[in-house]
Amino acid sequence: MANQAEHSRRSFLKRVVEFAYGIVGLFVAIPAAVTALAPAATRRKFIWIAVAKLTDLPDGQTTRVVIADKNPQGWYTVPREKVIFVKRNGNRFTVFSSTCSHLGCNVNWYPAINEFICPCHGGVYNADGKNIAGPPPLPLTRLQNRIKNNTLMVAVS
Amino acid sequence: MAAIKDPQEENVSLRQTVAQWLEERIGASHFIKENLDEPMPVGVGWLYTLGSCLLTVLIVQMITGIILALYYAPTPDHAYDSVYYITQHVLLGGIVRGIHHYGASVIIIIMGLHVLRSFYTGAYKKPRELTWMIGVLIMAVIFGFAFTGYLLPWDMKAYWATVVGTHIAGTMPFIGKYLERALDGGRSVGALTLTRFYAIHVLVLPALLIALTAAHLYMVRHHHIAGPPTVREGQRKPFYPDQVAKDAIVALLVIGILLGFAAFVKVKLDAVADPANATFRPTPEWYYMSLYQFLKYLPSGYEIIGTLIVPGVIGLALFLLPWLDRGPSRMPKDRKAVLGIGTAIVIAVGVLTYLGMTSISPAAQHGVTLANASPLAQKGEQLYNQSGCSSCHMINGQGATVGPDLSNEGKKGRSLQWQIQHLMNPPSVSPGSIMPSFQKLGPDNIKALATFVNSLGVKGGAAPPAAAPTAPPAAPTPAPAIKPATTSAKPTPSSITPSAKKAPSASTTAPGKPKAKSVAKSIASIGNVQAGAKVFAESGCSSCHMIDGKGGTFGPNLTKEGTHGRSMSWQIAHLMDPQSKSPGSIMPSFKKLGSKKIHDLATFLNSLGSK
What we know:
- The structure holds two protein chains of two kinds.
- Chain A has two domains: about 1-40; about 45-155, Rieske [2Fe-2S] iron-sulphur domain (Rieske Iron-sulfur Protein, 3-layer Sandwich), CATH 2.102.10.
- Chain A has one helix and eleven strands.
- Chain A has one helix at about 1-35, and strands at about 45-55, 60-75, 75-90, 90-95, 110, 115, 125, 130-135, 140-145, 145-150, 150-155.
- By secondary structure, chain B is mostly helical.
- Chain B has helices at about 5-10, 15-25, 30-35, 50-70, 80-90, 95-120, 130-150, 155-170, 175-185, 190-225, 240-265, 290-295, 305-320, 320-325, 335-360, 360-365, 375-385, 415-425, 425-430, 445-455, 520-525, 530-540, 570-575, 580, 595-605, and strands at about 395, 400, 480, 545, 550.
- The model of chain B is unreliable at about 460-525 (pLDDT under 50).
- Classes of the chains: A alpha+beta, B mainly alpha.
- The interface between A and B is large, with 88 and 101 residues.
């Protein structure tokens, strides 16, 4: 009888240990995981950036432009430069991001063959940004753009 | 009455006394003796020193890592500088960094050999399954070290290799984009990526490594060393000193080689990370080269095979190997299938690594490189990029305009000898040239650079373009690189409210509703032009440089500095280390001004003369 009571008491204490340390673990693990993984839920925010005066963008050509903005990264705001390509046909502008759809390198524009080529794994895009050779799975991203006061502006995130 | 000393007590040396004192409190002597005296299987020789050697190099990495952490600062505006400082200014800092850098490669080599030895001798078989599995986990942790350590110098290679690395994580189905953002600490590689990678590299992975290594060693001792597949007759020798002596000799040799590399082969530090650079080709370290090359072969839409499926299957197969090869025999003749597959994978990795290391740039394969595909010209292209030539010259819209545009240099009919002479002593063939001599590169490099320069604008050559254009223009038009509209763009925030009513049509596909932002604000946010002008005046820049007719003439006139198409990164790097961008420049470094003032000053310089 005494043995049974002792066994029952120990079983209960074992449950107490498991429960108490389990809760302690959760108290630590939940805020730790949430804080560490919070950036995974970062939302895309767009801002408008001035690209160039329209007079600086030659008609019938694709022009490489380096745009600059301020990129907030948590506590730190860095000056950032980003390459975009502006294809102009009269008053119609198509703006391509330079980010390769494969693994994120900056593609380069080669006017001699009217193609974009990625320096990393050899992805090739035609002048319309369509992926035509190599590993890229998607065309180059086209960026939203508009014109204001004779200046081409582009939305970047 | 004088105490009578026990003669036996007198004989007890101080050392024995201390040992006994410790033994009474710790009680570890039996444990230590048991481990040191453990009899080794007959036939255990030099191949069985690899594990111990790996442990030694890991300890060396930990020690050098701690030393580097004393100086390193994990922020984008200090990481590169702190690594540069360690390398250039800290006494023996370059050697410590060299040991840590090359130590990573040594660990991969030793680890690879250790795994291969265990694999070919069937050391993972019962009862050592868990010993093997823990070893595979250690291998994963070591690759994690290599990946996270890559970013820390914050140079071009670090930045772009990490961009590719985190994108690889992003290709994972369902959770990929969240995983990529969690790794990046946001939407792109930046400040939060650096702190994350640093924390993982110096806190998380070392803790895991220590725990797993302790478990691995415990398991090795618990089941004893597997030894050769066949049990041999003979006298078994104790671990200490017989095997430990071999371990010590191998460790001495390996650490000696490592130290030699650290002392005599300087670890490269590329230019500071530049997210706007589109010509840098981020080839990974040799141990990731096979994956890099494999990814090139996968057609559109199949990249997941290279990023996840093949590495994942190989990793999982290694982890579960004890259950994939369940036969009791450790003899190679009984394990032909497993050893055949393993050998095929090893050969494939070796071939891919070789192909990756000898591959030419993708653009070169299309004949539009800056150079054609001859190996010498390729080498010249690398030298062109490394030697800061683009600080003065432009090729296909990339680079500065201080010197002549070289896009079509090869069409000018200059001989190779002329180019070599020009690089050795520019004024000798181009009177009045202000270009510095590149004689210090040495004759072989000068020849490669001359070959590259002479190939510019010339199509074809040693390797015809893989995808030759049907009608290439006679003289390729360089892609114009223009600077963003600068602070001279007058519109106020209110004057640039979102409106496209009067604008020409603009094709758009990007989603979302961007927040309106002024031209002036977006540009001024890089740095402050007025503050930069103040820094210019206070720092005595005008002693050497002229702006609008005021100032010295010792250095270049900066009145139209903003029209040269130089990026902010270029200006910042030039102010920090003028020689890195303008070889031969005698301008002093202005690093001491600090990040804020440097940014302001760079912004001011790029605003000069711009319309």
